[in-house]
Amino acid sequence: MKTDPLFIMAAAGSLLTLLWTALFIKGFGKYREITSVKAARELKLNGIFHTGFELMKLLKINTGSGKFAEKRSNAAEIYGERYAGFYTYLFTGAQISYAFLGLPVSLLAGAAAGSTATGLAGCAASLILLVIYDYDVKKKVNARHDAVMCELPDIIMRLTLLLNAGMVLRDAWNTIAESSDTELGKEMRKTGSDIRNGMSETEAFEAFAGRCRTREIRKFAGSLVQNLKKGSAGLSACLEELADEQWEEKKNYVKKKAAASEQTLLFPMLMIFVAIILMIIVPVFTNMM
Known about the structure:
It is built from 12 helices and no strands.
């Protein structure tokens, strides 16, 4: 006897609904310290995140494992190394919560509508939610890298000018940091705060490179650390050379981004061209027939 696919969808949707309800009740009120942070409050349906956390516990999902290394790295860049584990756990729980809510709703809606395709499409959309947020975070990280790459040559040049004018490195650094409200400026202010709170300049610059996580910043911070260890006598000359190098890299980077933008626009232009051709050809063939 052949089993009705709609019956299977309804049964699976009902079982998932019961599981979701049980986890919702079990986890209710247990994760308020996590869901009360600003990042969680800014997300939609944050009141159901505890179902995702409970499901993670049930399935023994460990966000500290190697499978989540890239997600932790992205979280560290946006929120800092200290809080990377927390935000990885939070956002993983949020993603699972969205998908776990969407699956039973999609299956029951498909069964009620009498459409297997509707149910399966809803399930697919729910599972896609597991990767959409990761993609969005990756876009933010790439945008941050772009901003840092574009601003770095100017920052190095300004730092060089202030050092040549007689300022010590710490004062020159803070002067630039306080006058800039960009991503790089914020990270520089954080570095200045670390130094004022007792961290050595070497450790603070290394932490700065760790937060920004770009090759250019690592090279910049490495030059600062190296010259601090040797003595700051040749720091200005070193930074001038580095600034020239970064200006060249910035120009090459901008050219690559422009070429990539042209390629991105190529497909929409091709689609428009095909649509125009069809608008011309279809009426001609219709009249001929």
